[in-house]
Specification:
heterodimer; A: alpha/beta; Rossmann fold; 2 domains; six-stranded mixed β-sheet; four-stranded antiparallel β-sheet; 10 strands; globular; B: mainly alpha; 13 helices; P-loop_NTPase (chain A); transport (chain A); ABC_AA/LPS_Transport (chain A); nucleotide-binding (chain A); ATP binding (chain A)
């Protein structure tokens, strides 16, 4: 196996009496799409937030691209090429779509202590932003305020913002959350394209999407890894069925 | 983007034209009072505009902004009292000391958010107030008379009403231009982005507080300039200019005119100080009327007067 791009060792994060991340270790190799699944409350978002530095672990280490990033603040990890999207859409609501993306490009283009020139007229940043917007199918919505975009468009914009930082590793926290059938299909198609260029960690509840996209799947239950394997093996795994997939199937049968 | 022909831009343009032509009107009618009143208004408009930079664009609710008025003023007053009358020394000192004070309180207060930030900035301004009150060599509580206005080696005579008015107006326009450039620059977009969603800005790679601090220092420095002008205008500086109610006045001007709008603080300062002046002729309790006006603005016209105008459509 290739040298891992991301390596997590014995990560622990407690909230009061609850252990949200319980001695968790995992690896992400370059080029793969690594899905993380697990029932609600399994600690998926907590894990992502520790990977990007919004939440600090109680113990354990996170190595990214051969470097220990465990104690680095999130803005520094972003500069190293670690980008995330948020489960609950987190954008600059009173800015236009293209402003959101251009700012992400700006963050990775030297310091921003430039006080004079009009940043909205910097064609280089705008071009990067436009390309990223077109990538996710928002080319025509560039000048619309984020607050005026539909939920689906905001999810796509989240992705464009992450892409504009030219990440080595893209952490996507439920990009399909709240999307309709057509929108979900578009998102899956988009991720299929993106995975050719960038290593992706995908947290997702939509099992169909996960099994269609993932090279490997890690299953989390109560903050612990109970399985990590290729999709077919995960499908057959008895423990996974018991802990998660069975439960999920039971839910779908009710529909 | 070309400026659009909407109500708020028309009002801003008319306002600027009126401010430029005011001395002509004053000379033609012999109305000196209006010139002195508007000199004071332009100075406070500059101070309010600087507060708007951090409060409106940066989302930093500083409740101690009047401290810089005092610091700029005392820099001029103290140097004048010590026999250094040159504006070329006084004014740079006023700016530098204001910047350093902003750096000090900014680096401490920006660790906090929300109510705590408001309280810490307030506490620092009150500390500055009490320090000034304790300066017995420079008048203490009673304040310090500035016997001679800043001397600019014959370039400009600050004791000439018209020249001094145009100096204040020039500083106001210069300050507004600077703020306009800043808010549209890379730096300005970062500061506004942090106001909108700090977590997001960190996640895409910005060290938010570094930008907020620099913005805080720029605003303090501009307000220090307003302080230097104010001391020259009143020929006097006292701890009262730093009192928390003064900071409150500045906040009211910004909110009244429109937070996060370039000309909002100017129109806010004009309306607030004119109302104060007019009402004081009829009643001692001008606050009884000013208070409800502010309440109505906050309740029904978020975005202040400029916000109201912006919503007006043609026809």
């Amino acid at each position: 196996m290739a040298e891992p791009l991301l390596r997590v060792d014995n990560l622990v994060r407690r909230y009061g009496g609850i252990t949200a991340t319980d001695n968790l270790s995992m690896e992400v190799v370059p080029g793969e799409l690594h899905a993380i699944i697990g029932p609600n409350g399994a600690g998926k978002t907590t894990l992502i937030s520790q990977l990007t530095g919004q939440v600090m672990p109680n113990s354990g280490t996170i190595r990214f691209a051969g470097r220990d990033v465990t104690s680095l603040p999130s803005y520094k990890r972003s500069r190293l090429g670690l980008a995330r999207s948020f489960q609950i859409t987190s954008l600059l609501k009173d800015f236009s779509a293209i402003d959101n993306v251009a700012l992400a490009a700006q963050a990775h283009d030297g310091h921003s202590f430039r006080f004079w020139g009009n940043a909205r007229k910097e064609t280089r940043l705008r071009d990067i932003a436009r390309t990223a917007l077109e990538r996710v199918g928002l080319g025509k919505r560039a000048d619309i305020m984020v607050s005026q975009l539909s939920h689906g468009e905001q999810r796509e914009l989240e992705l464009a913002v992450a892409l504009a930082t030219k990440p080595q590793l893209l952490l996507l926290d439920e990009p399909m959350a709240g999307l309709g059938v057509t929108e979900s299909a578009r998102m899956v198609a988009l991720l299929k394209e993106l995975r050719k260029e960038v290593t992706i960690v995908l947290v997702e509840h939509d099992m169909e999407a996960v099994f269609a996209l993932a090279d490997r799947i890690t299953v989390l239950v109560y903050g612990r890894v109970i399985a990590c394997d290729v999709p077919d093996a995960i499908r057959r795994d008895e423990e996974v069925k018991r802990a998660y997939l069975g439960e999920q199937h039971a839910v779908t049968r009710h529909d | 983007m070309k400026p659009k022909l909407n109500a708020s831009n028309v009002v801003a343009a008319l306002m600027c034209a009126a401010l430029i032509l005011l001395p002509v009107y004053s000379a033609a009618t012999g109305n000196i009072f209006i010139l002195t009143l508007f000199t004071r208004i332009t100075i406070f408009a500059l101070a309010a505009a600087s507060l708007n930079l951090i409060m409106g664009y940066g989302g930093m609710m500083s409740f101690g902004h009047a401290a810089y008025l005092g610091i700029g003023g005392y820099a001029v007053g103290i140097l004048a009292a010590e026999g250094i009358g040159s504006g070329f020394i006084q004014w740079p000192v006023a700016l530098v000391v204001s910047a350093l004070f902003a750096l000090l309180i900014g680096s401490l207060s920006l660790r906090t958010r929300g109510v705590y930030f408001i309280m810490i900035t307030l506490a620092f301004a009150q500390m500055a107030y009490y320090v000034a009150s304790a300066l017995s060599r420079y008048g203490g509580d009673d304040g310090l008379t500035v016997y001679k206005r800043s001397d600019f080696a014959g370039l400009i005579n600050l004791s000439d009403r018209t020249q001094f008015y145009y100096l204040c107006l020039g500083c106001l326009f210069g300050g507004l231009y600077l703020i306009w450039r800043i808010v549209n620059s890379r730096f300005g977009l970062v500061v506004q982005g942090v106001r909108s969603n700090e977590q997001r800005m960190q996640a895409i790679g910005f060290h938010a507080n570094r930008y907020r601090l620099v913005c805080f220092v720029i605003a303090g420095t501009i307000c220090g300039l307003a302080g230097a002008l104010l001391a020259n205008n009143t020929d006097f500086v006292s701890p009262a200019v730093m009192y928390w109610t003064r900071s409150g006045d500045l906040m009211v001007m910004v909110i009244l005119g429109g937070m996060g709008s370039l000309f909002g603080p100017v129109i806010g300062a004009i309306v607030y100080l004119l109302l104060e002046e007019l009402l004081s002729q009829f009643t001692e309790f001008s606050g009884l009327i000013l208070g409800p006006v502010l309440l109505l603005i906050v309740l029904f016209a978020r975005g202040g007067i400029m916000g109201l105008l912006g919503r007006m459509r043609r026809g």
